[in-house]
Amino acid sequence: MSKEEKDGKKQEEEGKEMVVAKKRIKTFSDFLHKNQSKIQRTAEANTTRNKDGDVVITKDDPSRDEHEWTEICKEVDDDS
Predict the structure, then answer these.
(1) How far apart are CA 73 and CA 56, in angstroms?
(2) pLDDT confidence tier of residue 1, bands split at 50, 70 and 90
(3) Does residue 36 contact residue 43 with C-beta atoms inside 8 Å?
């Protein structure tokens, strides 16, 4: 198979992948639109607010012990 044929086949495969990705995005978008109210209610039910109505993270929230983001931010700052 020549280089041109390989390149053409690769472009064809990439085009097919793009079509599949667009269909997934559309499907997900349709799901979000259809379930918007339910998603908002669920998100609000799982949101903690202080007395002023601000969104807060509680002191006992397990995510406070996750240090992955701190490490990633340090790496990004070091690369800058």
Answers:
(1) 21
(2) confident
(3) no
3-class secondary-structure state, position 49: strand
- Helix (H, G, I), strand (E, B), or coil: what is residue 48? coil
Do 47 and 55 touch, CB atoms closer than 8 A? yes
Average pLDDT, the chain: 89
Residues 55 and 48 sit within 8 Å (Cβ to Cβ): yes
> Model-level pTM?
0.52
For the record, the structure tokens of 64 come out as 């406070």
* pLDDT 10s digits, 6-42: 878 788 888 888 888 888 999 999 999 999 999 999 9
Enumerate residues 6+ apart whose C-beta is below 8 A from 14.
none
DSSP letter, residue 53: S
